[in-house]
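Issue: copy button drops trailing tokens. Both records pasted manually instead:
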Amino acid sequence: MTTLPERAARRCYSAMNPIHSTLYFSPDLGREFGEKGVRDSDAVYFAARAAPLGPVGAGVVAATFYNFNHELIARHVPAVWDTVSPQAALDARLRAVDTLLRRLLGDEAVASPEMAEAAGLALRAAEGCARHARPLYAANADLPVPDAPHLAYWHATTLLREHRGDGHLTALLAAGLDPVEALVSHTASGRGMTPKWATTSRGWSAGQWEAAGERLRERGLLAADGELTPAGEDLRKALEDETNRLDVAPYAWLGEAGVARLTELAGGFTGTALVAGAFPADLIGKR
């Protein structure tokens, strides 16, 4: 493994991650699961993302997803597995990925040599990931790599996204942030979801959101106006630094030249997807 330029790994991850994440905002995923009898959007999300873990219960999903309300999860899990098996959910999400990437990127990009190159680089990076203490990464790593390059690329971005996410949970626990506090402080940084999206998609009430904010204020991390204090900004930076440290291995494994090329390719695909409306316009921000 090699030493990379500062933040090269973080930039590479940031260039790739939207291609993974856009699936959960796409009508294609809902359509595929609707045909299987799963029509509630929360149930679709939990089934699609948790399927690699097998027919698990609400507790496992709450532990691995971290910032979702267990009560919300328990409304759908494990009951959703009576309608769609984990394997059927995996098949449905891959069909949705195929439709999604063709719609956002176009058939020409999907079949391009650049897509095949990006898939190869991202899969090579994923070889540097480790399974221990990384449940969502490890479960996805046990899945077969799809043959089609664009599906293989999405699979690789999923591996790298869940690897980083698993490490981030370790950092959140070490910082003493519970699920709602993590969301409130991230939103206050201006880089997280808006409170509207965070509360509705994660299942927290306005009262629970405000109570978490009060706990952060008591710790000196959040100001009365909802902005991060200097101590809060320091904590969020420390979280980012620790997450970066825990996530550097796959990019160091790929090497400086590979990371630079993957960042370039991934940035092009992500840019096209964003212009095509991959995410809701009001998803990110403080308000």
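Record 2 (pasted manually too):
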Amino acid sequence: MNTSPVQGAQVVSRIAGLLRLVGRSAEGMALAGLVKESGLTRPTVHRLLSSLASEGLLDHDPVSGNWVLGPEILLMGSVASARFPLEDIARPSLRRLAEATGESAFFSIRRGSETVCLLREEGSFPVRSFVLHEGVRFPLGVASAGTAILAFLPEAEQEELLGNWAGHAGAFAASHTRELVRANLARTRLSGYSVNPGLVLEGSWGMGAAVFDAAGRPAWALSLTGIEPRFKPERQEELGGLLMAEAHRITQQLGGEGKATRPR
């Protein structure tokens, strides 16, 4: 039996996985970290990295020793941005949120069973949380953006993830128990915005609101992050209202409509 299509698909999957790992931060990742995170053997990882570097998709930083994204990725991203003008649409909302609250504001996209942070706008408050930045991925239901999105997905999709929660959440499953996540999802559906009470990193809080596509599905999310004293209960309603107002604005610009994002 000819297995070449399967083998080819496996190689593509491995390459895509390595690119995602390297792209988690501007600093890239060391070979040892890529081996550990990917689950592949060291020779396999090194061979794939070298091939990607020869095509300009990756670079090897001689100072840090890390593998970083290459110039071809920048060119591809520039072309892709013309098709997905999300920064032009989302950046004004991020700036308004950061200016109005003093907190750091973020725009994330759903990719399969994860959220990926795309954009960031720093607030004026001098003490910040550094849990979230461009390229960071979280499983759906983890952190405020992923909670806001998962809460408004169809129940069947929620249950599919919750049914294998430990496998889905991975290292976050210990702090995000299934029962706690269910409670957070229920609260999010009631209020329209999510609250992450320091579950990813103690003392680092976040709030999020979903942005809906033209089909009425939650596809993106706005979020605010900061230190715990800035997210006291008496301030959460104010922050939640601001998040939902901007989420509704972006939803309308993208041609969608989402009940949860309508300012109350």
